[in-house]
Specification:
CATH architecture of the largest domain: Roll
Number of domains: 4
Helix content: 25-40%
Oligomer: single chain
CATH topology of the largest domain: CBS-domain
Number of helices: 18
Shape: elongated
Number of strands: 18
CATH class of the largest domain: Alpha Beta
Structural class: alpha+beta
CATH superfamily of the largest domain: CBS-domain
Largest sheet: 13 strands, mixed
């Protein structure tokens, strides 16, 4: 089997990784490089490979035997310890792509550009180095480029020695290429990638995400990262992101901010959205009111089963919320009219689509008050095998619902999102 001599990281990061027996190990997500004042060229020391369970592990470049045929072949055993970036390491896709640099042209002129790709090349029996950088010219003076025989937006490949500021993170960069690489990830998995970035890079990635995608990712991040990202956004965008979040998650995040900051953000939100969050903020976080979402699936008793099924099929609904329809008298926005009962999705699937849901209501589920403790909510969900628990006031008006995922968030340790459940296979590989 031939040994590769060179590759571009952009292409490499799309390839599957196989062991010598042909079994798939995972997929390349990034390349790890190190810079040194003693070397003119940065050294590529390994691959970040995503294996089963969305775990990202480190595979040394010394284990790569081939990158031919649209796949990467490795030799030896793979250490399944979760990859954690070290201070002296740089991720090419996450941190170098789209970085603003200065590049020297063939004529000796130095012009601004952005990094589009990076070429690595085998150097000696055990080493790989960065040799080439594909850049796109971003000169602020197009006429100067014209004199050089080049155009703004033109892409060309330069030797790494001709590229300045490659290791300078302070110059800033875009995030489109990084997000393109990870576009297939679920929010929880993208959140893990973002959590591992530097604060500046997290802010750049957050700026490139849509409001809805950023809201989904923030909900999966540790509290410190949530606050850091939200505070880094301008007030208008922060308010839009809060509106896109689940109300209970948005209220939890707001509660971590100073009261004056809360008011500024609430004032920029839509009045109805702000009213829901203000109500949630009045409850202690370990009560039913603090746990609940104010936007469960709510329908009137005259709605048909076909209509109910259409509603729970909405893509934006979480799995937990889609399992239960809460049936109430108008108005159908919390606080609703009188709460009548619930209809579970399995029952909906067993009934004729034209029938009204009012005829199949489960009235045995008694709602809890918003002051009910976390323990009371947990026991009710477990006792009656429920996915969602209705929360109503003393007049029987539905205020919201607590779903099982909300309870899990509060039962697990506060730092559960940051814990590294490492599964180590064989011996740890040196990254020196």
């Amino acid at each position: 089997m031939s040994t590769p001599t060179r590759a571009f990281v952009g292409r490499l990061s799309e390839l599957d990784v196989f062991d010598p027996l042909g079994d798939k190990v995972g997929r390349v997500r990034d390349v790890v490089v190190t810079f040194s004042a003693a070397r003119s060229r940065p050294r590529a020391i390994g691959l970040v490979v995503e294996v089963a369970g969305r775990r990202r592990v480190f595979v040394p470049m010394t284990r790569v035997t081939s990158v031919e045929g649209g796949q990467v072949i490795t030799t030896g055993l793979v250490n399944m310890r979760r990859f954690e970036q070290r201070p002296n390491e740089t991720l090419v896709v996450a941190e170098l792509f789209e970085r603003r640099v200065q590049v020297r042209t063939e004529d000796g002129d130095v012009v601004p550009a952005t990094v589009q790709d990076v070429g690595i090349e085998k150097s000696g029996p055990r080493g790989w180095v960065l040799t080439r950088v594909a850049v796109r010219l971003q000169a602020s003076r197009p006429s100067r480029l014209g004199r050089l025989g080049r155009r703004r937006g033109e892409t060309f490949v330069a030797p790494v020695e001709d590229v300045r500021d490659l290791r300078d993170a302070s110059v800033g960069q875009g995030a489109a290429k990084l997000l393109e690489t990870y576009e297939d990830l679920k929010p929880a998995d993208l959140a893990e990638v973002i959590h591992d970035l530097t604060p500046q890079r997290r802010a750049e990635v957050a700026a490139a995400l849509t409001d809805e995608r950023l809201a989904d990712v923030i909900e999966e991040l540790p509290e410190d990262d949530q606050v850091e990202i939200l505070v880094g956004l301008d007030v208008g965008r922060a308010a839009d992101v809060l509106e896109a979040m689940e109300p209970d998650d948005a209220a939890d995040l707001l509660s971590e901010l100073p009261p004056e900051r809360q008011e500024v953000l609430l004032a920029r939100m839509e009045p109805d959205e702000a009213a829901d969050l203000r109500r949630l903020l009045t409850y202690d976080e370990d009560t039913a009111g603090g746990l609940m979402t104010t936007e469960p699936v709510i329908l009137g008793p005259e709605a048909s089963i076909a209509e109910a099924l259409a509603v729970v099929r909405r893509q934006e609904l979480s799995t937990a919320l889609a399992c239960t329809v809460f049936v109430c008298r108008p108005p159908l926005e919390t606080p609703t009219g009188k709460f009548l009962g619930v209809v579970h999705i399995q029952r909906l699937l067993r009934e004729p689509p034209h029938a009204p849901i009012g005829g199949i209501i489960d009235t045995d589920v008694e709602p809890l008050p918003p002051t009910a403790s976390l323990g009371q909510v947990t026991r009710m969900l477990a006792t009656y095998d429920l996915v969602g628990m209705p929360i109503a006031d003393e007049d029987g008006l539905l205020l919201g619902a607590v779903t099982v995922d909300d309870v899990l968030d509060h039962i697990l340790p506060e730092d559960w999102r940051e814990e590294r459940h490492d599964v180590v296979a064989h011996t740890e590989v040196s990254r020196g």
